[in-house]
Description:
- The protein is an all-alpha fold.
- The protein has twelve helices and no strands.
- The protein has helices at 3-27, 34-46, 48-56, 62-98, 102-110, 112-119, 126-134, 142-181, 186-238, 243-263, 270-274, 279-315.
- Helix 1 packs across helix 12 (279-315) and helix 3 (48-56) crosses helix 9 (186-238).
Amino acid sequence: MNNRIINIVIFVVAILACCVAIAFSFFSFDSDKKDSYIQVQEVKAQTPQMVTDFETATVQTLPNVIEKYQKETAERSEKQKDVQMEKDILYTYLQDLKNLDENSFETYKANFPQRSAALFAKSQNKQKYVDGFNKVQSFKDLDKYIEEVNADYAQIKQDYLVERNYIKSANALINKAVAIDGNASESKKASEMESFQTDLKSFGKSARLQNFFIVLTYILGIGALVLMLFFLLANMITNFKTSYKILVGLLFLVVTFFIGYLVGTPTLSPSAIKAGMTGSGYKMVNAACFTVYVCLFVAVASIIVTLIMNAVKNRN
């Protein structure tokens, strides 16, 4: 396989990736409105109708829209209190279990009926956790049960954080509308209303543009990966003795992906929430993006190093 062809292909992919990054930075929304953009996207991920209603509202209908979503958000806030209580109960239960040792396990198990009655008094899943612990016959079986409870806690915590962020963003959006409606001057109210709706529409365009660049980045990343695998396999066939280099390259990809998964955040973005992704699934996406970025960086760096080395050799 001609190394020049490989270098040209890698160079083209790297240049395309750089163009995507530059274009995204150039066409991205105003950085001063970043928080507002994120808030609107979080609201749109769960309640797109709210954003639409504020976009199409008039000065006259704005009070009705505000009242509608103030009531809806207040109801969700009340339900959120129950989720928070369940989360706190489960956290306390986990601490109980994690603090047990071989000496204290039997005592805790003997006193569990009284402890569970107090701990799960306001829990919606009391019987589930009582039955689950009763099935733990010895201390050596406790770790497996803790893993099950911890998985439940992680999911409840994730749901709680997602809902908390939504309520916070929804209230921020509603409060902006309240501030506009509270203007005594009708002309100022109309002017601020127009500016508010312009921002909402521009945020929608920015989100679509962002999704376009994300999809394009995925395409470039997948293309780079396919080309890399193709050249690796071709090189393995033609130069079998040097195949160990290919294995090193594959190991590098695996290690890079693993590092990306470890450092990736499980906190879902608005688009991930809308897509119905889980925390672990989102970490996989983060790992994939991290791997693509590292590979592109290595490709660009290798091209630059190769050009410098060739220039030095030619000069000598």
